[in-house]
Request: fold
Amino acid sequence: MSTAAQTAASIANSKLSTGPLSDAGKRTVSGNALNHGPLDHDGPSPNPAHVALPGEEAALATHLESYRKAYAPANQPEEDLVRTIAESYWRLERAHKLENALFRQILKQDDYKDLDPIAAQSLAWSNKDTGLQRMALYAQRIQRTAEKTAAALKIMQQERKAAYNQAKEEAMYLTQLAQASANTFDAALHFGAPHLHGGFVYSTDEIKLALLRVTRLEEARARFNRAA
Reply:
């Protein structure tokens, strides 16, 4: 038999999404229940296969795009990490909403409704049957996933950018050497596939612009540092 707190948890959960009404939709959601359910007894997976509930697809797409713009992934591995971060924070927001809805429903129960808010909150949190502890654990797992993924992405992007900058610097030196040697060799031939150099692709025009920029900066520093 369900306790009053468990009934409250069911009501709060149902208020977040009524789910699809068609038979096909019901079958789909039924198959995804373990992925969505934050109150699974064995503990929820922090990376469910399906993130958007019915009707949330457009909002989730906008959410994901904002993270892509912020992190600017340059390849598929980075794209995968950015998506994990975005989806994690999407689920975290849902967990907080569910927690708030669940707590509001709990306060309406006989064991809590006559207590002051602080005492009611303390009692509800200490009672594992309310589901609040499991909801908090679910949110913590999502938060850790997001933080660990963000740290991994930072390292990956730093390594990629370092490799790119090194390749660009080497290309500038090789281009200057080629010019000084009457173009007896092609500097571009000294670079392999882009993924080996952080995505760097040799371009004569871009290298010439980079060399010109270095020259101008050196002239500017010499002139204005001397004036100062």
The CA atoms of residues 92 and 139 lie 6 Å apart.
